[in-house]
Design brief:
heterodimer, A: 756 residues, alpha+beta, Leucine-rich Repeat Variant, 8 strands, B: 406 residues, Dihydrodipicolinate Reductase, domain 2
Chain lengths: 756, 406
């Protein structure tokens, strides 16, 4: 019984499908742009679900549309679009009939150009004889794309047409189709003067389809002309076909005064391969002026032929800046590990060191870092090697740099510390600290401290790294101890806190002050207790202030693991200790972020102080707004799960309709209790076009009886500010969207309520 | 159709400078090469901008910050887009790009038009000896992209695409993934957005003096005018050209140039293409997935990043230079604009060379074709054709309206 019912349902489905299948394709015949409902969209969906082996049925329907006398122009155009996907040889007679229509011929070619069969070529060649010029141009384009050699003859007849656009299309088609017949046709034709560049382009194109003497013949023809872009292209083709013949022509191009031809020649050197050209160009170098020499050196570098390296390296120490810079560029591309020491050896001035460093940093060959490490051990090369290691990010250099920080030469020591600061990581910290605690020179110490700060900031596991650093605390100098304490604040764990507390109790006034300031920047609540104690009992006023500020900071710190009650208690305590307005203002700035009743009480209390009234009023307003926003319940006609995003204080998040806005979409808020409201602001600035095109605002005490809208209007910009005619008391507010715009959602990134 | 304007080109300037030398007061120091490093006019790269809407103008502004560049001509089929340049005596304005490209005194063009014009304009410009800076996405079809590459190579032109985010936004991620810290990259993830759709908007009357409609359509099939076809309104909301199949690859290509560009750059597969494209089946392939010859996967998921052997690579600042083997701007360039100018002068290939831009655009087009046919595809990245798949191969390129052939 069950299987019988399923079978019946299946048959119904098939019938329904067939009926809709037929209707949709037939409806296309009468289609005009903008028709609704749109059969084309339905047809698109239907085709996506149609198996390939059923395309013949679709094709049949579409052929009928294309061949129909009654079908609209738009309908036939759309039929061609579908035939582009499903068409076969069968559709050629119907589609080629459209080739004779000025508009539809382009659509017919959508089908014919992509069909893999000779019949399509034939249909287009036939049409070429009888169609208007504008259509001919299009057909020539398709025959050209299909590289239909049989079309060369027909196109050849059109190259001297008085219609220059047609003649141009014919010449272009012959060039692209290529082959010997095309080459003969192109080289013998005498087109109008303004079409000569087109003839040259076509010859270049055609040369690419040929090889040997045939290609060389065409290239020579182009090179004999005066049109630079094609001469460059021909030179390039000639370089591929006959390098020996091309070489002197390239040399002439790069030494000549025509800047385009010069750039073209250099481009050929850079972009082609072959020993012959490299050799010829190197021979040419000595004869050139500085500027031309520099250009050629760069091009040889880009060429990538290592045979040029030896000659180019010699120019690294040139006195002429452009030549030196050019050789740096070239060597960085061609150079390998074998030239690194040679380069470092030439770095005997700041300018040359910079060039060498840049060159080595840019080199991509293997084994360069190993040579750099070796060079660090060489007294004559080490200064440049340090710079190059840094520029290259050579972390293998770290062990040698750790030794070089004890070198006799202060310049080497400085370089080594810079190197460690850039290249060392947390695992190297123990070795670094062992060296640091031994340092006597103030300048070295300053560089070392800079290095350990940078290495520590990069450490993946800061707690582990701090442990290592802290183990060197005792023997360290006072200044280094200060640096270690700073790292404690960046760590924030119990070990770090203990070290900082110990420092405070060490009896050393300077260390106490440093440690207190470190605590004031502590990243979590664990320092609160010590800070509170110091805020109340430190002997110096300045220390009490520092401690109190740190304590207030922690109370307001969002990531601190504190409950609301704990925060309020801390702020209340802080208020009791605060003597100055600066600290009281700091407390007021925190309160709106935590809109608890206690926050309001603290703000009210501070408001009594006239000198703080303005800040306190602002805080009270913000607390009220936050309190309301946090207690509002919102619902919407659509996408209910995201309504809170319009009330989260974050303009980066939003509620939206998830589809284009429609009249009747609504968004409702419930205050929970009655409130007096003077207006609303709907912020859609984050999705600029998504503001409501029209709106009506309703109010209600029970969420059921709404009555007439209290205000209505049109949204015109991303921020929709709605002012009520007068403040109203209500519990529920509903905003109904009344406009529409294709393709744009209605979004509320943030909803603000003007409360009275 | 050229607008009326006094034409002061570099060439005419140079020609006239012989006379001008006798009247030195009319030559500015900038024209001769100023002490601030501005090269003399004869050595500056003369630039013409085609497509002067928001992004095109942005590119021009950025290129103009380079003292080696002199902006001399602006072209757009929308009248409004040229309004800002009409009173500038040093810039000629055009509606038809062919007039700009035909000028012998222009060295370089910036193409900032809608996608369906990129191939035509840049190929014509390269054949006329111009170097090119072209806004992404590179092309409308895979076939167009390949022709752009071939033309650049044949005519020896420098061609840089404008995807500044590949390094600017995603370079740090690529550096991290390629640093070796996370092991081998297994998957690249990115989500550029969706494909375009067919446009069936009705025809409306063209408001006078607003747009050259036939020129705006160019190689695309003829349809009646509607402002939502040609507006630059962003996204797939149906109000701008990026929504429509005839003019754009949708968000897939628009953001794909950046996001897939960034991901494939880090994966080191931006010189080739995938061999398989898996249509999302909700099971093994939850998202559109590209599989490359080396086994790496590029997944159109909801995040940008790299899944490596040791987990997700996180961006970091640990390396002073990009890790060896990761392509980057060369010679200290900081943007594709600066890189392009450096490369024009030095005649080398830029970071976003046309081949790389083409490969990335192809990834996007392959995704669009996969979505259109709703099935898995097999691709030969060397021949750039689908394997034994005639239906898909028809979508590799599109016939063009006459007379627009490339």
């Amino acid at each position: 019984m069950m299987s019988k019912r399923i079978a019946v349902m299946l048959i119904v489905c098939i019938l329904v499908t067939q009926v809709s299948f037929g209707d949709v394709w037939e409806d296309i015949a009468g289609y005009e742009y903008g028709d609704e409902p749109n059969p084309c969209e339905q047809a698109e969906m239907l085709l996506q679900e149609t198996p390939i082996n059923e395309y013949d049925q679709v094709e049949e329907k579409l052929i009928a549309v294309a061949a129909s006398k009654d079908a609209t122009q738009a309908g036939k155009a759309i039929a061609c679009r579908f035939l582009q996907q499903v068409g076969t040889e069968r559709c050629i007679p119907a589609v080629s009939g459209l080739l004779y229509d000025e508009i539809l011929s382009d659509y017919a070619r959508l089908v014919l150009e992509r069909l893999k069969c000779e019949e399509a070529d034939k249909a287009m060649r036939e049409a070429l004889e009888k169609t208007p010029d504008r259509v001919k141009i299009g057909i020539l384009g398709s025959l050209r794309e299909r590289r239909d050699e049989k079309a060369v003859k027909s196109a050849g007849k059109l190259v001297h047409s008085s219609n220059s656009a047609l003649a141009k299309a014919a010449i272009q088609a012959i060039g692209k189709i290529g082959g010997k017949e095309a080459a003969e046709c192109l080289s013998s034709m005498k087109p109008a003067e303004k079409l000569v560049p087109i003839q040259m382009q076509a010859m270049v194109e055609c040369a690419r389809s040929l090889s040997g003497k045939d290609a060389v013949f065409l290239c020579e023809k182009v090179l004999a002309g005066t049109y630079s872009p094609c001469r460059i292209a021909a030179l390039r083709e000639l370089t591929n076909a006959d390098p020996a013949q091309a070489s002197p022509l390239i040399a002439k191009a790069i030494t000549g005064s025509d800047i385009r031809l010069r750039r073209g020649g250099l481009g050929i050197i850079a972009g082609t391969r072959g020993e012959r050209l490299t050799r010829d160009m190197l021979d040419l170098l000595d004869e050139l002026s500085s500027d031309r020499k520099a250009e050629l050196i760069v091009a040889l570098g880009a060429r990538g032929d290592k045979a040029a390296l030896k000659s180019i390296v010699e120019y690294i120490s040139s006195e002429v800046t452009v030549i030196r810079d050019a050789s740096v560029t070239a060597v960085s591309k061609l150079g390998d590990a074998g030239v690194v020491k040679l380069l470092l050896g030439t770095a005997d001035s700041p300018k040359l060191t910079a060039s060498v460093t840049k060159t080595i940093a840019g080199m991509k060959a293997d084994g360069i870092n190993a040579v750099l490490v070796e060079s660090l051990k060489n007294k004559n090369l080490r200064k440049a090697a340090i710079q190059a290691s840094i520029a290259r990010g050579c972390t293998e250099a770290v062990p040698v740099l750790l030794k070089l920080v004890e070198d006799k030469d202060p310049e080497v020591r400085k370089g080594a510390w810079t190197g460690l600061a850039t290249l060392a990581d947390g695992d190297d910290m123990d070795s670094i600290m062992k060296t640091v605690v031994e340092i006597k020179e103030a300048e070295d110490l300053s560089q070392a401290e800079g290095a350990i700060r940078k290495v520590f900031s990069r450490a993946e596991n800061r707690s582990k790294c701090f442990k290592v650093v802290a183990s060197h605390y005792e023997p360290a100098s006072e200044a280094t101890k200060g640096v270690i304490l700073d790292m404690g604040a960046a760590t924030g764990d119990s070990n770090a806190l203990k070290l900082v507390r110990d420092a405070m109790e060490s009896g050393n006034r300077k260390l106490y002050a440093r440690a207190l300031r470190v605590l004031a920047k502590w990243p979590n609540e664990s320092a609160a207790e010590v800070l509170l104690k110091q805020a109340g009992s430190a002997s110096e006023m300045v220390d009490r202030i520092v401690a109190l500020r740190g304590y207030i900071r922690i109370a307001g710190m969002e990531k601190a693991g504190l409950t609301g009650a704990e925060r309020m208690k801390m702020l209340k305590t802080a208020m009791g200790l605060a003597k100055r307005n600066e600290e009281k203002k700091a407390i007021l700035a925190i309160l709106p972020r935590y809109p608890y009743p206690q926050a309001m009480a603290i703000a009210e209390r501070l408001r009594q102080d006239r000198t703080l009234a303005a800040e306190a009023d602002a805080a009270i307003d913000k607390i009220k707004q936050s309190t309301v926003t946090k207690t509002i319940k919102a619902t919407a006609s659509i996408n209910n799960g995201n309504v809170k995003k319009s009330l989260d204080g974050n303009i980066g998040t939003r509620w939206d309709t998830t589809r284009p806005m429609r009249p009747g979409d609504w968004f409702m808020i419930d205050f929970g209790i009655d409130r007096t409201v003077a207006g609303l602001t709907l912020d859609a600035a984050g999705s600029r076009g998504d503001y409501p095109r029209g709106y009506e605002v309703y109010v209600s005490f029970n969420g059921g009886s709404w009555g007439k809208p209290i205000v209505s209007g049109k949204g015109t910009k991303p921020l929709t500010v709605i002012k009520f005619p007068r403040p109203v008391q209500t519990r529920f507010i509903k905003i109904v969207q009344t406009g529409s715009v294709p393709g744009l959602f209605w979004s509320i990134h943030e909803l603000k309520v003007d409360l009275r | 159709m050229k607008t009326m304007k006094t034409k002061i080109s570099r060439r005419t300037f140079i020609k006239s400078s012989g006379i001008a030398l006798a009247l030195p007061t009319i030559i500015t120091s900038k024209a001769l090469g100023a002490l601030d490093g501005t090269p003399p006019a004869s050595q500056r790269i003369t630039l013409g901008g085609i497509g002067m809407g928001g992004r095109g103008s942005g590119n021009i502004r950025q290129l103009m910050t380079d003292r080696r560049v002199q902006f001399v001509a602006a072209c757009d089929v929308k009248h409004n887009a040229l309004r800002a340049w009409k009173n500038n005596k040093n810039v000629d304005t055009y509606f038809d790009y062919r007039e700009l490209v035909a000028r012998d005194d222009i060295d370089m063009i910036m193409c900032g038009t809608p996608d369906h014009w990129h191939a035509q304009i840049t190929i014509d410009a390269m054949k006329a000896g111009k170097d090119v800076f072209c806004e992404k996405p590179l092309s409308l079809t895979i076939g167009e992209g390949r022709k752009m590459v071939e033309t650049a190579r044949t005519y020896g032109r420098v061609f840089s695409c404008g995807s500044q985010r590949v390094i600017g936004d995603y370079g740090r991620l690529a550096s991290a993934a390629r640093s070796g810290r996370y092991g081998k990259i297994l998957e690249g993830h990115a989500n550029p957005g969706g494909p375009p759709r067919m446009c069936y908007l009705p025809g409306v009357t063209i408001p006078p003096n607003t747009i050259e409609w036939d020129l705006w359509l160019g190689p695309a099939p003829w349809v009646p005018y509607h402002p939502y076809r040609c507006s630059s309104a962003y996204g797939l909301g149906g109000q701008g050209f990026r929504t429509w199949y005839d003019y754009s690859g949708g968000m897939m290509t628009d953001w794909g140039g950046h996001k897939f560009g960034g991901a494939t750059h880090g994966m080191g597969v931006d010189h080739t293409g995938p061999t398989q494209i898996k249509y999302p089946d909700g099971k093994e392939y939850k998202y559109l997935t590209y599989i490359f010859k080396n086994g790496m996967k590029l997944i159109k998921s909801n995040r940008q990043g790299y899944m490596c052997e040791k987990g997700w690579a996180e961006p970091w600042n640990g390396m002073p230079v990009p890790p060896p083997g990761l392509r980057w701007y060369e010679e200290g360039a900081r943007s594709p604009h600066e890189d392009c100018i450096n490369c024009i002068i030095e005649r080398r290939r830029p970071f976003r060379d046309v081949e790389y831009a083409h490969r990335v655009a192809s990834v996007c087009h392959l995704g669009n074709i996969c979505f259109r046919l709703k099935r898995d595809l097999k691709w030969d990245p060397d021949k750039e054709e689908f394997i034994n798949d005639e239906e898909a191969n028809r979508l590799v390129d599109r016939p063009r309206r006459g007379p627009w052939q490339i």
